[in-house]
Amino acid sequence: MPTTRHIIVCEGESERAYLLRLQSFLDAQPMVDGGFEPRLRFIGPEHAVAKSGSFGRLKGTYNRTRAANKRAASIQVWTDFDLYHRNDARCADHYAAKPSGIPDFLFSFHNFEDFFALHHEGDALAEWLRLGQRHFASPLHSQGYLPEIERIFPGYAKGGLPAGFVSWQSLRNLKAHLHLQPNGANPHNLLGIRSFATFLVHEMETAYPGALDPTPVAPAPNPWFP
Predict the structure, then answer these.
(1) Are β-strands 194-195 and 75-80 bridged in parallel, bridged antiparallel, or unpaired?
(2) pLDDT tens, 41-53?
(3) HEC assignment per residue over 64-120
(4) Could you say which of 144, 164, 190, 204 would form a disulfide bridge with 140 (CB–CB 3.0 to 4.6 Å)?
(5) Looking at the domain assignment, is residue 223 inside a domain?
(6) Angle at 11 between CA 9 and CA 17, to 5 degrees
(7) Within a domain: residue 222?
(8) pLDDT for 155-185, tens place per residue?
(9) Does residue 176 belong to any structural domain of this protein?
C-alpha cells in the first residue's frame, strides 16, 4: 500500500504536538508488503503553524505552505470552531466568502481540548460531557474552559501531550465518541464545515482496516460446561 501524505496547516502548538505524537505512533507500526514508510504520513512543519485560529492568519499560512509544496496532493487546515461559531473578528463572515483556492477547513468542535477529550473514556469523558452542558451550545473562551479541562484531565498542558497519548486504544475511543462532537450548532449556516476527528478516523480506517474496531471481549466462561 503506498503512503498517503497530508500536510496539515495547524492553528497552534497543541495541534502540532498531536500530529507529532500521531506520526511517532504510526512510524512505530510494522511495515507491510515490503514497504519502508508508514501507510500514513501527517506532515506538520513548524512554518505551517498559524499561531492563530483567525481566518486571515490561516489563509495566509495555507497560501505560503501551498506555494512551498506545489506538488503536494493534500494540504489541509485544522483549527478550532469556536471563533467561527461566535464570529469573533468576523471569522464566520470571512470563511463564508473564502476564495475557491482555500480548502474547506477541518475543525475541532469547539476546541482542541474537546478533540483531546474524545480520546478518553470512563469518568473523565463523563466529566467532559457535564462541562458540555455549558460549553457546547455556546462555546466558552479559553479562560472559561481551560481550568475545567485541567481539573478533568490532571497533568494536561496546552501545547504538549504525553509520549504515549496516541495509541490504538485512544484512537478506538476517538472513533467510538465521534457522535459526541458538539458539531450540530452552526449558527451562521456555514458551508464546508468538516471535522478533523472524522477525517482522521476515516484516514486511519482506510490505511489500517479493522484496527479501530472495538476490541473483542471474550464471553464469560460457563461454569457448568468448562
Answers:
(1) unpaired
(2) 998 778 899 999 9
(3) HHHHHCCCCCCEEEEEECHHHHHCHHHHHHHHHCCCCCCCCCEEECCCHHHHHHCCC
(4) 144
(5) no
(6) 85
(7) no
(8) 899 998 988 999 999 999 999 999 999 998 8
(9) yes
Query: Which amino acid, one-letter code, is at 187?
Result: P
- Please say whether the dihedral angle defined by the alpha carbons of residues 13, 141, 156 and 127, taken in this order, is positive or negative: negative
- Residue 225 lies inside a defined structural domain of this protein: no
The predicted model scores a pTM of 0.93
In what helix (H) or strand (E) does residue 40 lie, and over which residues does it extend? strand 40-43
Query: What is the number of domains present in the chain?
Result: 1
User: Contact, 110 vs 182, CB < 8 A?
Assistant: yes
Report the chain's C-alpha Rg in angstroms. 19
Q: Which domain holds residue 22?
A: 4-207
Q: Three-class SS of residue 172?
A: helix
- Copy the grid coordinates of residue 62: 495555507
Task: Please name the helix (run of DSSP H) or strand (run of DSSP E) that holds residue 175, with its range, or none.
Answer: helix 168-176
Residues sharing a CB contact under 8 Å with residue 195, sequence separation 6 or more, in sequence order: 106, 107, 109, 178, 181, 183
Given a contact cutoff of 8 angstroms between Cβ atoms, the answer to whether 84 and 52 are in contact is: no
